[in-house]
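Notes continue from the previous slide.

Worked example: a multi-chain complex. Inputs as given:
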Amino acid sequence: MSFTHINIGSLLAPTPVVMISCSDRDKNFNIITIAWVGVVNSKPPMLSISVTPERYSYGMLMDTKEFVVNFVSEELVKFADFCGVKSGREINKFKACGLTSIEVEELKYAPAIDETPIFMACSVREIIQLPSHTMFIAEVMGVYAKDYLFDENGRVDFKKAKLVSYQHGEYYATAEKLGFFGYSIASEEVLKRRMGK
Ligand SMILES: Cc1cc2nc3c(=O)[nH]c(=O)nc-3n(C[C@H](O)[C@H](O)[C@H](O)COP(=O)(O)O)c2cc1C
């Protein structure tokens, strides 16, 4: 079968979609939805988000150099969309969505969203100016998961988190497990334990 050229710039799918909560120095909080997010280092754990300078959140990120990555569950996806089409310049998105801000031990200003299943506290280490976006490279200072997500072995069961992915303008559910790291070479016994088959 042949391929057809698609003229749509940088297409990567699926990407995560996350709600980034941030703040100014007076603790005015905001949420911006971001799909251009990725892991960039393991020791120390680091990730990047790319934000255009027009965003209201941009000034907050530049000033406080901290933010929280809130994972998007199926329950939160409508709010994630809302926070990605409305600006904090005009409305308080925490209030408009009925979301609750909570303090994060590792950070001075940025709050987490209490309704998220998992969040990561991030502290900006490097800023790279690119032609359209600014890339904030941050160290992950703490990762938190809600208690209901843990299985009997103390592992986070991501199926329970019902996380959402993003594919070229659309949101998709991700809760179906297809395998696990190394499952292609795992023994029958491990497959049975981890996959139930
Ligand atoms: C699914 C989705 C993904 C988005 N990803 C990004 C992104 O990676 N970078 C970015 O600068 N804006 C992104 N946006 C747009 C911002 O979230 C949007 O402009 C938002 O209203 C900015 O809010 P603010 O002005 O309060 O900061 C995305 C929007 C949606 C809906």
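Summary box: Residues 103 and 111 are 5 Å apart (CA to CA). The chain has one domain: 15-195.
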